[in-house]
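Okay, any thoughts on this one?
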Amino acid sequence: MGINQPPARSRASSILLLCLALCAASPAAAQKKGGTLRLYHNDNPPSTSLLEEATIASVLPFAAVFNNLVVFDPAKPHESMETVIPDLAESWSWDTTNTKLTFKLRQGVKWHDGQPFTAKDVQCTWRMLIGKTETQDFRRNPRKVWYTKLQDVSVNGDHEATFELSEPQPSLPVLLASAFSAVYPCHVPQAVMRSKPIGTGPFKFVEFKRGESMHVVRNPDYFKKDRPYLDEITVRTIDNRATRMLAFSTGEYDITFPSDVSVPLLKDIKARAPNAICEMTGTGTQINLLVNRVNPPFDNPDIRKAMSLALDRKAFNTILMEGNARLGGAMLAKPEGEWGMSSEMVTSLMGYGPDIARNVAEAQAIMQKLGYSDAKPLPIKIQTRNLPTYRDPAVILADQLKKIYIVGELDILDTPRWYARLAKKDFTIGLNVTGVSVDDPDGNIVENYSCKSERNYTQYCNAEVDKLLAAQSRELDKEKRRKIVWDIERILVDDAARPIILHSSAGNCWQPHVKNFKPRDNSQYNNLRFEDVWLDK
């Protein structure tokens, strides 16, 4: 008996469909295991303990050691509540009062030393953060203010933990998705976590040579069985930015340090390495003026107002970023910012209008009334961190303050000394770059401006602002919350609380063989675990 053959056209269609199906499946099949991701670092991390630090200098080399309860989806370049996905938690849910957030935890997860991960580790981590534990061995606790509503974390067996709040805090899942919200092991002292951290993450810590290099290797027992693809990540410190750019351009490194590539340098890299993939993005950082308002004569609000009026933001933007930076208040500026004010609202703020000459004239009149002049200037030291992203704007700041009879001498500090000075409030004037790890008011203005926050470096304290900060934090309606935030923004500008100069933009570049890497458009902190990155070589 003969077999009926399909028509030739039908056979051709079947072959075409099969080819399309195979092509669609090819990206997953093409993912290669192995290889070393080579990164450079622009600085010396203060420590390996993410819970105690406030700088990307620690996040870049050590985020891969840890997991969170939840994270931002690495495949989506814009972070928001809608992009929060499971990590150590499999699921989570609020109770009817919106004051209890319960996490169902993954089973079978192990710490890098082989100990089992349980709900007790979640409880232990956040009890340390809120100070509800007998072992108070954190040196610093920069984000304790995130958790002022957190009364306790209760556990139900080994795989369920509940965050118990005094009142609603809708931002909590977003805060927990920050790279700074790593879960720590209860059985490991903080002294160890500062130098030889143990996590559950895709990579295990190997080495940290201060000022030289950092090294992590693949965790073979990672609970995501097909991750990570890489065998190891090596990081080497290079102090000089020109040397860093040249080393990347010649193929010595695979990815540039987050937002390390300035606008002019981006053109140089593309000329030297035309195959490199580069993107200009918002960095989630803001250049700002720090004035320690308890130190005379800067306890005088008139002087602080004059300094705020003297800022020519357009000049900063043109010189540093060729006009690519954003203007805004304390919250990340539009269009990337979820909470940013409209351009009309920003322009109406004190010192933000286009008439720079009028602003400077008003500032000069204030200073003259206080007895200052070209003949009798006010000498100060402007402290800043020893990185180009800090030093360059500090030079411009010093030049602009001369116009209002303030003569500033730069005092350049290395990273450990800079953060130690800020933590102790041991400065008078500073040029700062504030990194915001999550674009949410609780992770930014609460952290930087509330009276009792450790990161309120200028010691600004306004009871009305604190009241509004509390109101926005518990508000469940996002639009109502946004309007409260804008009210806070106006007060902060009028008070010259911490004058925001620019929201930075910068370039990120990576070699074409680096796959599954995508910078975020509203934070540079939360996509540095590299567990999905693979090398096509």
